[in-house]
Amino acid sequence: EPEVTQTPSHQVTQMGQEVILRCVPISNHLYFYWYRQILGQKVEFLVSFYNNEISEKSEIFDDQFSVERPDGSNFTLKIRSTKLEDSAMYFCASSEAGLRTGELFFGEGSRLTVL
Amino acid sequence: DAKTTQPPSMDCAEGRAANLPCNHSTISGNEYVYWYRQIHSQGPQYIIHGLKNNETNEMASLIITEDRKSSTLILPHATLRDTAVYYCIVRGPPGAGSYQLTFGKGTKLSVIP
Questions:
Q1: Tens-place pLDDT, residues A4-45
Q2: Considering all CA atoms of chain B, what is the largest pairwise distance in Å, rounded to the nearest integer?
Q3: C-alpha span between A36 and A45 (Å, rounded)
Q4: How far A4 CA lies from chain B's nearest CA (Å)?
Q5: Chain A closest CA to B90's CA: distance in Å?
Q6: Are the C-beta atoms of A35 and A45 separated by less than 8 Å?
């Protein structure tokens, strides 16, 4: 069964460093998303991406965050200067047609620890 | 999107049906009910969604009351692998403008041997 893959599974970084989280969405999907989950808290929407541009973003997704689809297969989330509060599990997701079928496919997540 | 209310936790014996309730009394006419689950700290997994008719797939059944103010997700024969947090989410029609799903705290289902 096709799946969304994310790398790295765990990254430890120092505060102020740049981090790039990578995702390979399901190949025929057109919509891509990043969500995050701080330990013990809810899953929160960050951003959605379609047709090479951001289609929607939350208040969390400030100027420190950016997304890119550099080569037609990878979808990346960059955090420019990490803060302690960026420590969380970051989930990439993709879908075939927005939420038309109601189904988002999530990856296993990348755990980011900021020291 | 309409707010949902779910019990924080439930237990179910292995092999029995798990019935997970969700209240969404402020749901509007074109909003759908979606169910996802999250096993341990893995990525959320889609289960099922519906508008007003009952729905069934290979994973579960979704029963929506006639007034649409509540629904029940049914796992017909729960296994230990169904232990997870189950999220009931209400949002606009598939394909409608917003792309985001708003996850609440969900119901922690524990399947007991």
A1: 999 999 999 999 999 999 999 998 888 899 999 999 999 999
A2: 43
A3: 7
A4: 10
A5: 11
A6: yes
**Pairwise CA distance, residues A14 & A95, whole Å:** 33
Rounded Cα distance, B91 and B82, in Å: 24
Q: Are B99 and A31 in contact (CB < 8 Å)?
A: yes
Instruction: From chain A, pick out residues whose CB is under 8 angstroms from the CB of B30.
Output: none
In whole angstroms, how far apart are CA A62 and each of A38, A109, B2?
Answer: 17, 21, 26
Residues in contact with B58: Cβ distance below 8 Å, sequence separation at least 6, in sequence order: none
pLDDT of B33-77, one tens digit each? Answer: 999 999 988 999 999 999 998 999 999 999 999 999 999 999 999
Residues of A in contact with B95 (CB under 8 A): 97-100
